[in-house]
UniProtKB/TrEMBL annotation:
Domain of life of the source: Bacteria
Protein name: Transposase
Organism lineage string: Bacteria, Pseudomonadati, Bacteroidota, Sphingobacteriia, Sphingobacteriales
Residue stretches making up the Transposase IS116/IS110/IS902 C-terminal domain: 211-289
Ranges of residues in domain Transposase IS110-like N-terminal: 6-160
């Protein structure tokens, strides 16, 4: 036997668990299954159940689960504190793998068995919990985005109501009150985000250094830090680029030449928050972004594609400044940017003048 693997299919109230093992000929066999409550007492019961069936203690055991909303978080944190090696997968990744195994039926028990088999056969990336500081920051930045979207919806509704054939004064009044209330909440939240960043002196100093880039605000950096857990799990630029969905996808086969575009299979909140700063880089003619914009625009003539290139470069620059604890200086060109984009180790180039 090479490894034990526990698969957990988690919903709001229940957890279906399955423990499997894999032998030297890559044969996976199910050892046991159970159903528990998604509560603290259920987690303790799960721990006891795993301990009971993990009979050969010298053989490694992994736990594999899906990131189902927030319902997995308490269970994952409990198992992490108990010392388990666990992986948390995006639902679409687990779904595609299970489909590739030819599973036609789907229920919670089958999903748990599939996750156990996946954990046994593959060396999955281990999960690390988000630090409480960044967890709280993420809650605020995501609420800020939600409020902005609510404000946009209310403004659109007000616009339509005021220009309709018949105008309802009561509806218009309520919409205006709603917009004013949302704007106040947004302002309060922005103040709270800045105050939260100031709680950590090291983070605050790094954010101040990054925000020396003209056209880049505290909120943008806060969202990126919140969504990446302070870059703690990223070892190089390509990992971050892929996580944000800026990795390039080609569509070519034989004589067919399809469009080359970014995958967008990543954290959309990062791409969203970098949209306006990319425009600011061009507006304020910030180097090296304005040069990149002009070169790419001359090449393909698509403004938005050039703005996306700036977003990608800006994200890598923020990561570089953060990792090297450096403040942005417009008089210097940081050669770490190219290294990060190519996946090279940090520290192989110096910061030299233009």
């Amino acid at each position: 036997m090479l490894k034990y693997s526990v698969g957990l299919d988690i919903s709001a109230r229940t957890i279906y668990a399955c423990i499997s093992s894999i032998d030297a000929v890559q044969r996976v066999s199910v050892k046991s299954s159970c159903k528990i409550d998604n509560t603290l007492s259920g987690f303790k019961q799960l721990h006891q159940w795993i301990t009971k069936h993990h009979k050969q203690k010298h053989i490694p055991l992994v736990v594999n689960m899906e990131a189902t909303g927030v319902y997995y978080e308490n269970c994952a944190m409990y198992l992490f504190k108990q010392g388990y090696s666990l992986s948390v997968l995006l639902p679409n990744k687990a779904k595609k793998w299970l489909q590739s195994e030819g599973l036609k039926s789907k229920n919670d028990k089958i999903d748990a068995q599939g996750l156990a088999k996946m954990g046994a056969e593959k060396a999955l990336e281990l999960w690390q919990p988000t630090a409480e500081y960044y967890y709280q920051l993420r809650a605020m930045t995501r609420q800020h985005q939600s409020l902005q979207e609510s404000k946009t919806a209310a403004n659109n509704q007000l616009h339509a109501e005021e220009r309709g054939m018949y105008k309802n004064k009561m509806v218009v009044k309520q919409l205006k009150q709603q917009i004013n209330f949302i704007e106040k909440q947004i302002a309060d939240l922005e103040t709270a985000i800045e105050a939260h960043i100031a709680l950590n002196k090291e983070v605050a100093e790094k954010v101040d250094g990054i925000c020396k880039i003209k056209g880049l605000g505290v909120l943008t950096v806060a969202v990126i830090l919140a969504e990446t857990n302070g870059f703690i799990l990223f070892k190089n630029g390509p990992q971050l680029i892929s996580y944000a969905g800026y990795d390039v996808v080609e569509n070519q086969s034989g004589s067919h030449e399809g469009k080359t575009k970014i995958s967008k299979k990543g954290n959309s909140r990062i791409r969203r928050i970098l949209h306006m700063p990319a425009f600011n880089m061009v507006r304020y003619k910030q180097k090296p972004f304005i040069g990149l914009y002009e070169r790419t625009l001359e090449k393909h003539g698509l403004k938005m594609k050039s703005y996306v290139a700036i977003q990608k470069k800006l994200l890598v620059l923020i990561y570089s400044l953060w990792k090297n604890n450096a403040a942005y200086d417009i008089n210097y060109r940081n050669k770490y940017t190219r290294e990060l984009e190519q996946g090279l180790p940090l520290g192989m180039a110096s910061i030299e003048a233009n």
